[in-house]
Amino acid sequence: LKAGLHYLERKVNFQKEGQISFLKANVGSVLEQLDTLLDLKVNFESDTADTRASIENLESAITKCKAEADQLFEDVLQRKDKADSTRNALNVLHRFRFLLYLPVTIERNMAEGNYDVIINDYARAKSLFGDTQVPLFEQFRKEVERRIEDLRRVLWQQLRRLPAPLDHHKKIIRNLQHLESSGDPAWESLTCRQSYLLSLLDQTKESHLARELADRDHGSGGAPPGGEESGNAAGGGGGTTPAAKYNQIMASSLGEYQNQAPVRVVLVEAVCDVLCDQYPHLWRLSQAYFSGELLPPDTTLDPARQPHCKALLLEVISVFSHSIRGSVLGQCLLPTDSNPDYQQLLAQYYRVWPDISVAVITPWMPQIIRQVRACYSTLLTLDLPNDALDIVANLLLDLRVQCLQWLFQQTVEHVKGLHWKENWNLEEPEKPSTPGYTQLPSHFESVVLEAGQLVKEVVLVTGEKETNVLELPDVRRDLATLIHNVVVAFAQCLEHLCLSDPDYLPDPSGGGGGELTSAAAALASGYQNPHGGSDGEGPPGVEKQVLITLSNCAYMRQTVLKRITDALVKIGYPEKEVRQGITQAASSYEVLQERLLRAYLEERSDPVIGMIERSMYLGGFDWGKVYHPPTDARSYVKEILLNITHVQAEVVSVWSGEVSQLVGCVVEGVGEEVCRLLSCVNTWSDHGYTQAVIDVEALLMALQPYMTPAARAPFEESLELLPKLTSEQAKQKTAALSRFRVRMRLVMECFATDADAGATADSTA
């Protein structure tokens, strides 16, 4: 280090010695340069003093010349400056005419609705002059922004204005996004469209409700002109059935349909049309929103809005469902709930509707179901979530179930009134064993099958994604009950023709049955056949009416109920429930048959039995004062036989298969009365008891075909009361019976022939 230090010191000293040596070697040249600089300074100072005066003179001359020139060319120069400024302004205007004319262009295109042109021009202006610092351009840019803000306001107003096509709204949404409008125009459009649809449904409901209340104030009760009358008629045999009423509705013209339709049916059609027209737009808009189609670029979807949108969509479907439920079903099939929100719902959609006759609304239920089903089919094409579809599917299911119940209930009411259609004209039996019948059972059969076919077409047929009502245990159970009620209703109709208490079918052993109604007597006395009898004659007597009704009852049991069962099963009704309902209802006909049988026997047996005592003792006859040997049966015996032939002929004319039973019962009553009268005789003459034996055996011989063990017993008891005949008296008896057989041959052959025919019919049946 010390050696290096000494080296550096030597180098520095050497350099100092080199500068001094340089000056020493060139000192002459340096002095010459200094002398030259001094001479230059002296010469410059002398020259400056000489030229200063001339320069000042030149400056004053130039200034004076300029002033004179300005004075001479001032106007020309001013015009030149103005021309230059004008030229420069025109150049600027031509170069930047797009920005300068843009406010006026925006106003003109707004008036013409050319929003796309405005948006394109605005985007171009922003790209060209967005960062300008030129005051003029800044002023025009602000004016353009003011016009664009007006355009945004107009577009928002159009977005909220409904109804409008969905494509138009989508275009507005994109325009607002291109204009960088604040907010979410797509979501705003979605909520506005949902609110509009709700208000439209509510307005539709309120307008039809107000119309029904106004009609009610005028006395029509919410039904169309003649609606109540037609509804009442549908409940009785004098009017059309609900199924026939529906067929008339479908066959009517548009004008007739609109005049006949109840307000609530029109409401259902209106809300279905509203939903089918507007809901697809709402659903497609929501799908476009959540698919990102309507979102600005580089924008993410808010996940919280998806459940909110679902709630909006479900709310519309729920309002639609409640509007129909409240007007058509009322509070039927609704659960009981004390929740305040639920009670408010009932007050808003259900309790506001006044009561309406089921008979008025029932014929329109198939049409209502068709409308809702068509609306449901439209919703199915949209691929909606199951929550929304389930609401309409449940509504449709409840409408179908209620339609099933109401149609059968109204059919029951109609069937109960079919007795007014009875014309008492007997049809030709298909077989000798078949009971005679009128058109009434066949008319009942057609009514049931007509209702069954309508229920099958409307209720039992299952559309796409609909619940099969026959898979519901409650519906199957109700179906069996409804079929049972319809069949029992016809038994009540038959009973109403002849017997009292038509609404009650007591046990046959309970007594109190068999009384003829005053209606039957009125029919017998002043009957006018609404259909016109084939022979143009009046109705038969009350007794024959009972017999015909009895035969109709048997015909129902043997033939009609089987045909109805087979027909309903064939068109798709569950066999188990159909057979269960009809089998249980058949017991009503058994009960009715017993009551009618007793009623007929009372009406026919009592006159026959009542005349026996009077005819037996006619002319003061005394069994103890018979002084001549008998030669024939007495007249009262022949009168008994003739009266029985009347009963026999009446029964044969209606139902030959029932001759043995009915005539046998009459014969039994005759035997009991004869036995009673003979047991009351205190004194017998010889010829008197011989005559009594002849009379009893004549009855036994003539009525042999109808002598059941019960009928034979009183006659044999009568013979046991009488003394044994002597041989002479036996001969007299034999001769008298021979003579009786000859004289009453036609009557006895009549009994034998009809009894054989009846026995054959009974065995065949």
UniProtKB/TrEMBL annotation:
InterPro entries: EXOC2/Sec5, EXOC2/Sec5_N_dom. Keywords: Exocytosis, Protein transport, Transport. GO terms for cellular component: exocyst. Component of the exocyst complex. It comes from Hirondellea gigas. GO terms for biological process: exocytosis; Golgi to plasma membrane transport; protein transport. Belongs to the SEC5 family. It comes from the Eukaryota. Residues 1-751 form the Exocyst complex component EXOC2/Sec5 N-terminal domain. This is Exocyst complex component 2. The keyword Kinase does not apply. Residues 220-239 have a biased composition (Gly residues). Residues 212-239 are annotated as: Disordered.
